Amino acid sequence: MLKLSKLTDYAAVIMAQIARQSDQAHTASELAQRVHLPLPTVSKMLKKLAKSGLLESRRGSHGGYVLSRSPVEITASDIIAAIEGPIGMTECSHADGDCELLNTCGVADNWQRVSQAIRTLLDCVTLAHLAQSNPIKLPVQLPIQSVTLPTTAASREH
Hints:
Arc Repressor Mutant, subunit A; disordered C terminus
């Protein structure tokens, strides 16, 4: 099963809460109360999101965390990458992937296309979408090249 970690899910929840009131700074304790998560978890996510450049930390009596960009300029893939790292189905799915089987596996190109399709879809979902309660309308057709899989002896046997 492919799924995001709980921490990535929490980061998206926290970012959506901030986006709903993007005109003000938010403290870790205030956010923890609003999203019903433990303060240490919220603090950890806020630091990671700030380090990745998605949030800015402001000091002072009216300080807290604010979005570094508009909610329509922050994507789901930005949030995922901030917590999980580069998005890819396999090690060879992103440019810095290193795999000893790359020259002999025969599936790397197709995994890279699947990974690109997922990244493209996640780039279409903005923080503004995540922050609203209405269902997200996703593009029906992704702008990727179609994948033609070669017929192998093994696939003909099944």
